[in-house]
Design a protein that fits this description.
The protein is an alpha+beta fold. It starts with a strand and ends with a helix. The chain has one domain (2-215): Glutaredoxin, CATH 3.40.30. It is 55% helix and 14% strand. The model has no long low-confidence stretch (mean pLDDT 95).
Length: 216
């Protein structure tokens, strides 16, 4: 087996991050001889998002200048791409986008508990499949508990402000590496794949990395 460090830089409110993760996981299963060590790294698409969040249609129009028709077409394309991996996205024009900083703090803590990947997927499902508010402390605690984490400890993390400095430092590090959009998937801290790429693209990159190692 070939051990492979993978830093998956993403935000929990980024739909293409879901697709990129599912595509990567499929590629790893297809290859079979890779033992991945995936670290989910924080990136906030909207660090200034207020606590009350924002209507997703209004947000996309303001940030990207997208018309309602264009936004609807994008949502449809994202739903179809996610469905190919069995992931259900139910977002619509009345959905809201939320501040994700507390979710990133909880993910940082969960890594030390050996449950980061489980929590990441559960947060994706809470936000994209059920339309829940992933900035809400009670929802975050319940989501943490649903993947086997200690709910009381999760609430302590959220109420204490723990890991805020660590998350800010990690965000700054990846920005300094030139990451300006997500998902960004970095292999062995050397090779980067950007965006929700198809399975075959991930397979090609991983094969090249392994071949380069073998060649010495």
């Amino acid at each position: 087996m070939h051990r492979l460090r993978i830093d998956f830089v993403s935000d929990v409110v980024c739909p293409w991050c879901v697709i990129g993760l599912k595509s990567l996981e499929t590629a790893l299963r297809n290859l079979g001889d890779v033992a991945p060590e995936i670290h989910f790294q924080p990136f906030e698409l909207n660090p200034a998002m207020p606590p009350e969040g924002e209507n997703v249609g209004e947000h996309v129009a303001r940030k990207y200048g997208a018309s309602p028709e264009r936004s609807a077409a994008n949502r449809s394309a994202i739903r179809d791409a996610a469905a190919e991996f069995g992931f259900v996205m139910k977002g619509g024009p009345d959905s809201r986008i939320w501040n994700s900083f507390d979710a990133h703090r909880l993910l940082h803590w969960a890594e030390g508990q050996g449950r980061q990947a489980d929590l990441k997927l559960a947060l994706f499902e809470a936000y994209f499949s059920r339309g829940e508010n992933i900035s809400d402390a009670d929802l975050l605690v319940a989501t943490a508990a649903s993947v086997g984490l200690d709910g009381a400890a999760a609430r302590d993390v959220l109420t204490s402000g723990a890991y805020a400095a660590e998350v800010r430092a990690d965000e700054a590090y990846w920005q300094e590496q030139g990451i300006t959009a997500v998902p960004a998937i970095i292999f062995d801290r050397q090779f980067a794949v950007l965006g929700g790429q198809p399975v075959e693209a991930f397979e090609r990159v991983i094969r090249k990395i392994i071949a380069k190692r073998v060649a010495g």
